[in-house]
Amino acid sequence: MTEKNNEIKKKIKKTLDKDRYQHTLGVAYTASCLAMRYGADIDDAFTAGLLHDCAKCISNDEKFKLCDKYGIRLTEIEKKNPALIHSKLGAYLAEHKYDIRNKDIINSIRTHTTGEPGMSLLQKIIFTADYIEPRRDQAKNLKEVRELAFTDIDRAVEKILYDTLNYLNSKTAAIDPETRKTYEYYCKQARR
Ligand code: DGI
Ligand code: FE
Ligand code: FE
Hints:
Layout: H1 3-15, H2 18-38, H3 42-51, H4 60-70, H5 76-80, H6 85-96, H7 103-110, H8 121-132, H9 142-151, H10 153-170, H11 177-191
The structure holds 2'-deoxyguanosine-5'-diphosphate and fe (iii) ion (2 copies).
The site of one fe (iii) ion has 5 residues, from α2.
């Protein structure tokens, strides 16, 4: 592991609870494996994995305060579903508190929950690794998605979004328009 990633690992451990830290390591290692498979930078994938949930263990109250302080604009859906805020706030913290200069890493953190149309390879890797890391056991079709992740990452992204939209619908949870837009983008792309 690079010295920089070792430092980030130590720092992030202090800000996360035990379960979240274990999930974070799972995402970092899974993202590294996907980077090996698809020819992305392994160290960058590890960094993005380590930092993707860096704002997750901040209370909702504090999340709103920090967004206000840093001038981070929130959408209506984010205001109503504060669980969505940790990706945007995390991207800001990665840049300004963990000194990440690589825009692709920052974008990967920013889009890891909903995805966005036209994602870079690293963005797709983090989005997928977050869903399939070894400790995940709740989502359905995990076996299929895990296999797909290592055979065709675009199809894995599409399947994850499809299952996520169904899951959110079954819970009657509000759907972030970005999640739906991303799904439609990857559906169309598959048919091209
Ligand atoms: O932070 P993690 O738990 O590792 O995973 P995540 O960043 O994907 O966040 C997962 C949560 O985000 C999960 O409770 C589902 C929720 N989520 C994802 N897309 C949407 C969403 N919640 C709402 N309300 N709307 C969405 O479109
Ligand atoms: Fe997350
Ligand atoms: Fe996560």
